[in-house]
Amino acid sequence: MSIDSDPPAAAVTPGSQRPAIDPSDGTAAVSVTGLEKSYGSVRALAGVDLEVPQGTVMGLLGPNGAGKTTIIRILTTLLKPDAGSARVAGLDVVRDAARLRERIGLAGQYAAVDENLTGLENLTMVGRLYGERRAAAKRRGEELLERFELLEAANRPTKTYSGGMRRRLDLAAALVARPPVLFLDEPTTGLDPRSRLQLWETIEGLVSEGTTVLLTTQYLDEADRLSTEIAVIDHGRVIAGGTPDELKDRVGGERLEIRLEHPAQGEIAVQALATMADDPPLADGELVTVGVHRRGGAIVEAVRRLDGTGVGVEDIALRRPTLDDVFLALTGHAAETAEDDLQDAA
Amino acid sequence: MRRLVSDTLVIAERNLVRLPRAPELLLAFTVQPIMFVLLFRYVFGGAIKTPGYSYADFLIPGIIVQNIAFGGFVTALGLNEDLHKGLIDRFRSLPMARAAVLAGRTSADVVTNGLSAVILILTGLAIGFSFHTSVPEAIAGLGLLLLFGYAFSWVFAFLGMLVSTPEAANSVGFIAVFPLTFISSAFVPVQSMPSVLRAFAEVNPFTITVDAMRSLWLGAPAHNNIWGAVAWALGIIALFAPLAVARYRRAAGL
Fold first, then answer.
1. Could you give the 3-state DSSP secondary structure of residue A39?
2. Which superfamily does A9-244 belong to?
3. By C-alpha distance, which of A112, A95, A89 is closest to A179?
4. Are residues B95 and A102, on separate chains, in Cβ contact within 8 Å?
5. Which residues of B touch A115 (CB under 8 A)?
6. What are the pLDDT digits (tens) for A283-338?
7. CATH number of this structure's domain A253-320, picked from the four choices 2.60.40.1120, 2.60.40.1220, 3.40.1080.10, 3.30.70.100
8. CB distance A276 to A302 below 8 Å
9. Is the Cβ of A334 closer than 8 Å to some Cβ of chain B?
10. Using a CB-CB distance cutoff of 8 angstroms, which residues of chain A are in contact with residue B95?
11. Domain boundaries, chain B
12. Residue A195's CB: how many other CB atoms inside 10 A?
């Protein structure tokens, strides 16, 4: 079931943050070049390139209708591309579709379980459709139900499950055949915060066991938390890519937010801090914002300077740019979504 | 091929296991056909002349064929629901035989159609219907009935993959199939119809199948009806099964 063996230890450059995997040497779990797809006159994908190294998480981030789901559908053999090519686990998504289906798991936006079957019946059915015998499929189903804390509900029809339970069962169904590459289409859309967190932890667990994950999300915090790398998708193109930190750096470094005891001291504070920043600090009432290029020691340095000039500080914090800032900077519109889509369509 | 058979059985089992848990569907297989038999027998029965047979004898083969043809509705609605809930996506992402989801559905229909047929025959016997032929002929009639129902399940499978909502499947199926069953010899002798309707009714596969059933159950002259009915059923399967599977392969989900 596993794809190529792990990259040799020598390929990992000491001191680098991530293993240096050269995508061209075949260890990329997902490799997409020039992918295009149109529905009638609507161009869903306008040339997408992606590279997901084995054992990492790629987050496709973008608003509704950006083309994220189309990418997932092509990579899981549900849809044929108009142009371009894509390989998953070393197999071509069009030519090797039948073999590829044995190596991927898909969990969807809509929990794809039969609501009139029990949790165990659902998983047993999926296992048998992978070609397992009934007994083996049932054993695997029980194993997954236990892992996903659904064992108590194993023999209840899934229509009695909560939203979070159904999502976990859907994910369990995607894992029946222990796929090396997992596709998650908006895995937490519509879930309550607690179920979301649970699902995030589960996904992190799978990744730590070596599964490669490609997920789509509209949630910036989700992409930030789970992804090794993020590809920002808009209008069927990848408009930016990189680690969450790299993307944030592109919007500018971190910001020091200082709340003063006396708003009147804002001007003194700005002068005291001016040489710490590339751009002049901004004072707005009691709030002073300083863009800093170096994270280390910034707070200590700022406090020292302000103390030296007699400025009273009530609160001081480093704020990293969020992916909201990233999205706004890259696309010129905020990440949320429906209204933008309507305007785009018009 | 072995995969197709085993995957088909898995899907058929799924559809049968879930059936008792969806009581509204079970009603469609049991109470509804009984209701129709009673309504026809006692509301229209007195007014319709059926030379050579009592109306109960005339009606039962016809109404059973009609009911069995509609048995495939479950397939249309079920497939459409699967499409919307993402189950078809899941199945299509699995390394299973491409025809198995539809073949499993239609095979499960054979079981439920058999159940409906038994209920209708028992109801018929209670209101005055009786077999006028030998046991093998009666059993052959049941076989023909199930074959015809299986053929229509493929029509409904195609319909279920074609339309966008279960409601649409319901109305399109009803509008397409309901007149077909009525402009036939199922409920009245075709001789009583205006000439245009009669011309249509005489070539209608429903008429041919109902007449074949009457010869197998009542001993009516068979002519070519039995082979005609088998040919129609096989022809419908040969046309609609590939169409439905082609739709399934390209199913776009939501």
1. strand
2. P-loop containing nucleotide triphosphate hydrolases (3.40.50.300)
3. A89
4. yes
5. 85
6. 888 888 888 766 678 888 888 898 888 888 889 888 877 767 777 777 766 555 44
7. 3.30.70.100
8. yes
9. no
10. 98-99, 101-102, 129-131
11. 2-249
12. 18
